[in-house]
Amino acid sequence: MERAKEDAMERVRQIEMTVAAAPPTPEAEERWQQRVDVLTAWLLHQWEREQREAA
Questions:
Q1: Phi and psi dihedrals of 11, rounded to 5?
Q2: 1-55: per-residue pLDDT in tens?
Q3: What sign does the dihedral 38-43-48-52 (CA atoms) show?
Q4: How far is residue 9's CA from residue 29's CA, in Å, rounded to a whole number?
Q5: Could you tell me the CA-to-CA distances from 30 to 15, 37, 51 in Å, in that order?
């Protein structure tokens, strides 16, 4: 998915909302790293399971 190059604005009934990327923070970086770690562990587990089944 490609991140929007510009902020997006949309009118929903009488409400205007703007969506923009937030500036990076240490907390956000930590959450992304946790997601990467969990996904990596899951992928490794799946690969190991498939290797056992193929043996």
A1: -100, 125
A2: 345 555 555 666 777 778 888 899 999 999 999 999 999 999 999 999 999 999 8
A3: positive
A4: 26
A5: 33, 10, 31
| Closest among 26, 20, 17 to 4, alpha carbons compared | 20
Supply the DSSP symbol for 13: T
- 34-38's contacts with Cβ under 8 Å and 24+ in sequence apart are none
Residue 18 and residue 6 in contact, taking contact as beta carbons nearer than 8 Å: no
Per-residue burial over 26-47, b = 16 or more CB atoms within 10 Å of its CB, e = otherwise: eeeeeeeeeeeeeeeeeeeeee
